[in-house]
Input
Amino acid sequence: MRPFDLQLIVYAIFEKSKLYFLYSFHQFSSGQVFLFLPEQDIIKEKTISYPEEAAMTKGINQKLKMLYLEKIFQRETDDEHGLTLQEITERLNKDGVNADRKTLYSDFAELKKYGLDIISSNGGRNCTYHLGNREFELAELKLLVDSVQAARFIPDKKSHSLIGKLEKLVSREQGKSLQRQVLIAGRVKTLNRSVYLTVDKLHQAINAGVQVRFHYTRWNINKELVPRNNGNWFQVSPWLMILSDENYYLAAYYEKAGEIRHYRVDKIKDLQLLQDLPREGEAAFRKLDIPQYANIHFGMFNGEQTEVELKVQNEKVGIFIDRFGKDIMLIPQGPDTVSLTVKVDVSDQFLGWIMALGEGVEICSPEWVREKMVQEARRILQVYK
Output
């Protein structure tokens, strides 16, 4: 009979005035017992050594038991996949942790107090246990995976790394469905592997309220990123990060021009924070209509900002609502046409967008924008004569 399995009855004989005292005590997990000595009227602690096999009841990682148990529930169970007590015990044993049915019930209760949604199903001998609610639902993680995969500013290698980390938030079986989504998507990604680090540093500069400087680059015919501005530094005051057309842009105040300009983040190299120079341009930044900033700047290209009135066929009104929002005012101009006014930067990209909409869209005013469209149409016609 193993001494650590049963209550021990120990006969401790103390001779004092020819009296014998009978004592009963319990074995504790620590291997310590308490003996009452009447002559001293105090409790003395005595350690009893047991055979070597008793010490083996604890695994080498016993103190990490609850952590391993949580990991098992997180990574190996979900609503479709549960584990029996025997299977949980076997997995703990592989991690150097010993457990039995009675202690597992107690452990489950403690984990529930901690916040884990441990659910039992299939009552009886075949009862299984799994983790129910999680920090993220599988559908939410699929949205995050899609966003990471669609983001052009995140290189392929980093995308797979981030998605691998997201997989660890669900069970291994659920993680397979996230990985399948990665294989489906085949998007053109940036070749600048440091872009996510640049984004982080720019956020640091914005939060600290300091200026930055960097080299701004462009592609040459050899498919190389080469510096603009003869390799001179661009020094600006960062105010805002914008995600537009699957690219990240920095909106910053350029002191030499006295205006807000934007720069594509994957073209920024050698970024430095100028900790001793507080950023400038707060007044210019406050004038920005931030929610509409990306809509006004088509393809994030600059142009002269103005209000443009257009006449649009009813069937194409939805295109403008999708681009500029439901707040645009639509004024009927007959049974099939409406007029509307939008504020935009009149750039070549804006004119190209209007042309791409084809028949049923016409610029009405101002006149100089109409004339600019005529000139652009003539230029294109001359090219394709």
User: Anything to note?
Assistant: The radius of gyration is 35 Å. Confidence is low (pLDDT under 50) at residues 1-56, 181-186.
